[in-house]
Amino acid sequence: MRKQMKKAISVAACAALVVSMAACGKKDDGAGKKEEGKYKVLYVSRNQADTFAARLAGDFEKYWEKTYKDKFDFDVQDSQADNDKENQIIEQGVAAGYDGIIVQPNDSDSQTPYVKSAADAGVKIITTNAGIRDIEGASWIDADPYEQGKAIAELAVKQIPQNGKVAIMSCNPGNLHTESRLKAYKDIFVKERSDCEVVAEKICTQSDQATFMQTMEDWVQAYGKIDAVLTIGDDLAKACYEVVKDDPTFAETQYYGVDANPDALLRIKAGTQDATVMQDTAELAQKNLDAVYQLLTGEKDKVEETIETILITPENVDEYIEKYIEIGIITQEEYDAVK
């Protein structure tokens, strides 16, 4: 179970602090320095019930503690996969006098007008995972989700058996990352492997393990054996595997995901997931916090940056597990158990 963010504050608490924090929100003096006090930065997490989002929020907290604790105050709020709540948090962040706001959108279309409004109000605002681009006055830092989907799709073209039955599972409709990965699967895998039958496809509107598992259970009841499941995230791939792991009919089923969650790397090592794509949460956190400070101090006017896409398979998974061990995300005991 993830640790509760030490600096997280509720939406209600934020609203209660609007007056007092707005008074603290001094503008730059023209030389990139605050007239008094420290900057205040808010990170709006999409949904910390999501493994990747929780890990990303944790890495934000760690890098802030290490690098910027004496430069600016930092708060984290969880929008719990609720567009209205996320939009409200952004609005209240502006009203509360935050100098910088970093937003992990739940639905890019829904968050766009609120991000634009914050930028228009003079807040240094960054969107990340997924970055919303082309908003005047706003910045973005992101992976390339289409490239992530492309890496998985090209591997699946090579590995999924001839005439295979394939299911495709996505979630978070309206999210740039999920939609772009799904598009890559269709553009590349579906077009190039016309021998395969896509027996099922679903975009889950609820992003939780129970929903993902129920979807897989429905598919198993309707279609029997499925040779491969293409998913847009490791949590989905894990849910699909958990449903059928004790059924010998699915012993050879292939599972594909994105995010390089620690348990996904261990599953790849154990042979129960075939591939994932890393979007490095530590790198995202570092680049976002570096960028917001550069924006606040006037070192930069705008930041637009893409991080690397890394395909992880059984051939290179040891390298990334060892990196996770070094930073304490995976234990040596967990690694040894799947070797």
UniProtKB/TrEMBL annotation:
Q: Note whether Signal occurs among the keywords.
A: yes
The keyword Amino-acid biosynthesis is annotated on this UniProt entry = no
Q: Name one Pfam family in it.
A: Peripla_BP_4
Top-level taxon: Bacteria
Keywords in UniProt for this one? Signal
Pinpoint the Periplasmic binding protein domain residues.
Answer: 46-300
**InterPro entries recorded:** Bact_Solute-Bind_Prot2, Peripla_BP_I, SBP_2_dom
Which Gene3D superfamilies does the UniProt record give? 3.40.50.2300
Q: What residue range is the signal peptide?
A: 1-22
Q: Which family does it belong to?
A: Belongs to the bacterial solute-binding protein 2 family.
Listed name of the protein: Sugar ABC transporter substrate-binding protein
